[in-house]
Amino acid sequence: MPRMKILNAVEQEAFDTPPVFNSAQRKRYFDFSMETRRQAVKLRTPTNRLCFLLNCGYFKASKRFFPTGLSHRPDIEYVARHASINLTMVDMDSYDKQSLLRHQQTILQLHGFGPFDKHAQTAILHEIEAMARSQLKPRLIFWRCVDLLISRKIQRRASRTLSILRKS
After folding, report:
1. Cα–Cα distance measured from residue 142 to residue 52, given in angstroms and rounded to the nearest whole number
2. Is-above-0.90 flag for pTM?
């Protein structure tokens, strides 16, 4: 059975890629708390520091994580400049998955969010069932799920994850 397309290609790409900031937004979302700065300073390599801070800013703006390879160049340069990170010492390709996962856990804790786990998936499925019984349109259900995750301080997931939720 073919899957229903809830978001068009442009909307899905916008949802699944880091936000594009203007200079005011960049200043806002990459302005880090002292605790965030302390966590970044503890990291061993300039690459880990930069990627951690980029993930913090993107999470602050969108309440979700993105692959590091999708980071926008102006954001990379801004964060590097303000964190005194020499970009010639950074190799984004060397940012390993274990570091990424550890950093994501730290970022979730810093922002008071929980992971999108089985418990969160079950709760969202119950909400989806209730909204479907009310005959809400799939697009509205999708966006309400996004809002629900944010209000419950649960990390947002990729659009594909939210659109294919089903009982296991």
Report:
1. 29
2. no
